[in-house]
Amino acid sequence: MKRRSTVINSAIAVLIAFLGIAGCGNKGTEELVPFEDSGGTDGSKPKLVFLRVGTEPERKKYWEEAVEAFMEINPDIEIEYQECGYGDDFETKLNTGFASGTAPDVINFTMASMGTRVPLGQYAPLNEYVDNWEGKEDFMKNALDLGRMRGNIYGIAVYPDPRILIYNKELFEKAGLDPEEPPKNWEELLDYHQKMIKKEGDIVIQTGFGIPTSGENLQHYFSVFMEENGMKNLVDEDNNEILCNTPEAVEAAEFMKKMAEEGIIYWDSNKKDQNPFASGLAAMTLGNTLDFYNWNQGSMEGKLAMAVPLTNKEQRTFCGMSFLFMSGETEYREEAWKFIEFISSSEQMWKRYEDLGIPPLRESLKKQFIEKSPENNEAIYASIYYGTGSPKVAYANSVYNAINDALEKVMYGVEDAKTALDIAAEVIQQEIDNQ
Length: 435
Known about the structure:
The chain is an alpha/beta fold. The protein is built from 17 helices and 15 strands.
């Protein structure tokens, strides 16, 4: 509830001081301020708090303008915009708000948060609003489905973050491959990979597919390959069934190992400066749109392109996503939905694309989006369309850690794929049993 008093605010201040909370900036240097009074109890217009994850200046500018535009056409509703850096700071701010009854009304946060916060009732189901929403049929189906959990829609997608097959056209040409024909399936990927490997003695100095051998993003590569091989995710979130050690998953890990055995440059995905693709030593890799724009500069400018997701049994890739969630505690559900609906409009989606390069998620904008950059935007759209997100379970971090450990052992030849993934499955099962 949004009924606040001096006593509550004093209690919050004491709690914050006791916990030693440093703040919500990127480096924890800003003061953590309790959510302010939302008003409306005395007949004044309702005041909603909107909290966004991230503090990027260019995105802040967009959101401030969007909030102002919303209030201009909805003068009976006031929106207080707040933002907070990623990681523990944001989690702490949300936890403090929900614990004290002062949580924000609308929250922009990640897909992974659903696994923890939906069971606690902190995100409200949106079915009654979405069912009557004019934009429902125009919204990209996969993006809408990524906001579902246990049959209900809890989040409306805002920022897609797909993993896209990115390749170096110049290295394709040097290897005698058509730079306009990237690989379409595992067989072609392996063939292209083999043709672009260069060695000096036993040392690989150029590789085909730049795949990491350790680090926290290793599980993203594995999830892409296992989903292309027919598995829906690392874990079936609907029934807690572990999928990471199924025959299809083992085959995906073995495929990754085969590429390593053919010849790769070993690197840690936690250290971006080690990425061989970024330095022109790998012809292909997986990355997001920001990676592409960062790599497509300097000596590599104009040499890079994007491709649609690969297929083995299915065409799939990984697609992260941030959403707009309605607080399960807000008094102002109609007003909160009106704001979510506004941000999800075609006009605001296109403004996010023009201002921030964020791909729009409306089918009516697909043609317009692709025409802006046919070569790359079609690949981006397809990667969102065929993307699968993180498993929405409370133990997701344990899944990632177990998979990263298993795949590192596979890539370095410490254990075979089946043994390593069976051990990972046991670790994950222990987490499930402890829930």
